TrEMBL record:
<feature type="binding site">
    <location>
        <position position="69"/>
    </location>
    <ligand>
        <name>Na(+)</name>
    </ligand>
</feature>
<dbReference type="GO" id="GO:0046872">
    <property type="term" value="F:metal ion binding"/>
</dbReference>
<comment type="similarity">
    <text>Belongs to the fluoride channel Fluc/FEX (TC 1.A.43) family.</text>
</comment>
<feature type="binding site">
    <location>
        <position position="72"/>
    </location>
    <ligand>
        <name>Na(+)</name>
    </ligand>
</feature>
<keyword id="KW-0479">Metal-binding</keyword>
<comment type="function">
    <text>Fluoride-specific ion channel. Important for reducing fluoride concentration in the cell, thus reducing its toxicity.</text>
</comment>
<dbReference type="GO" id="GO:0140114">
    <property type="term" value="P:cellular detoxification of fluoride"/>
</dbReference>
<keyword id="KW-0812">Transmembrane</keyword>
<keyword id="KW-1133">Transmembrane helix</keyword>
<keyword id="KW-0472">Membrane</keyword>
<keyword id="KW-0915">Sodium</keyword>
<keyword id="KW-1003">Cell membrane</keyword>
<feature type="transmembrane region" description="Helical">
    <location>
        <begin position="93"/>
        <end position="115"/>
    </location>
</feature>
<dbReference type="InterPro" id="IPR003691">
    <property type="entry name" value="FluC"/>
</dbReference>
<keyword id="KW-0813">Transport</keyword>
<dbReference type="Pfam" id="PF02537">
    <property type="entry name" value="CRCB"/>
</dbReference>
<protein>
    <recommendedName>
        <fullName>Fluoride-specific ion channel FluC</fullName>
    </recommendedName>
</protein>
Length: 119
């Protein structure tokens, strides 16, 4: 049953990533990977909230492993960073890499703390 929940959540997460990334790129342009940053930070927020709320195994499978796993994308984050670096945007690549990690942790911890406090 958990594998089916992961499958469903993953399908929704993958489509959500595709749509959100496209919308953000359309609005912000393609000179900086705002779309990847957006989906990764959103997934960190959802995962932090789930863990903070003490979500059960089925919810973790559906929303955590499935939705957040497919919504977030470490490999695209790495590729975006390499592309920035290869295109001579060394400072931008460093800011993106470090900023993504720090922002992701901060958002995870904020939502985890908020939901842990509320539940």
């Amino acid at each position: 049953m958990e594998a089916l929940l992961v499958l469903v959540g993953g399908g929704v997460g993958a489509v959500a990533r595709y749509v959100l990334d496209g919308l953000v790129k359309s609005a912000a342009g393609k000179s900086f990977p705002w779309g990847t940053l957006t989906v990764n930070v959103l997934a960190a927020a959802v995962l932090g909230a789930l863990h903070g709320a003490g979500a059960g195994t089925d919810v973790e499978a559906l929303m955590g492993t499935g939705l957040c796993g497919a919504l977030s994308t470490f490999s695209t984050f790495e590729l975006d960073t390499v592309h920035l670096f290869q295109n001579g945007h060394h400072t931008r690549a460093a800011v993106y890499a470090l900023g993504s990690l720090l922002l992701g942790f901060a958002v995870f911890l904020a939502f985890h703390g908020l939901l842990a406090h509320l539940t």
